[in-house]
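Troubleshooting: if your tokenizer reports a length mismatch, compare your output against this known-good record of 255 residues.
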Amino acid sequence: MRITDLQDKAVLVTGASTGIGAAVARGFAAQGARVAIHCNASREAAEVLAAEIQAAGGSAIVLQADVRSVEACTTLVQDAHAALGGLDVLVNNAGGVVKRHPLRDIDDALYDEIVNLNARSVFACSRAAIPLMDAAGGGCIISTTSLAARNGGGSKSTLYAASKAFVSNFTRGLAKEVARHGIRVNAIAPGVIGKPNQAKTQPAHQLEASIKLTPMRRIGTVDECVGAYLFLASSEMAGFITGQIIEVNGGLQMP
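Known-good structure output:
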């Protein structure tokens, strides 16, 4: 399927070296978009992805930054804008559980790491992108939230769930604020999705329980998330959609 209005769009995807972010970057490139693949620790994986996209005739560059830092987020967005010759779409995808801990055992350093990665990065990248998109006449911001934002998360991931709840409400609030500037702001809330680090972040018994509770009786794949991002980025298909959260969870939780 070809989404014609994504051709030549300048797209920055944070957390794009692996998992959902990599699939999203690949999906935008397949539509003819010029993609900036952000990475932090996984530079090698990001370079492999960029080479794959280029070999298929697409356009991709790699930008490295620690998005737990506000200053790094600002520089990342500015560098993407300069390298791509604009910024039409920002996908705030960087995030993760980091470490499962009972709340009473979380020290300030771990708190900062979880909140900075999942919440502060979305704020900082979006803030940096807004004036650039405004000057260009509009744009699109899509953030990755989570099913955890609605149900409180799995075992020992309260702070992660809370940070994703921030992302969901930040999406709604920002959408109201920037709509008059031609900027649409939405989010995707994946449920239980098969990712390379799944075994590290979710206990096997919890994963099995989630599958049993999911009407489709399986976990999703990263590729099954991509269509929602492409849909929201397309002005032709989603031009009157803003402030929305699209759930991709196989029916595990419904409105």
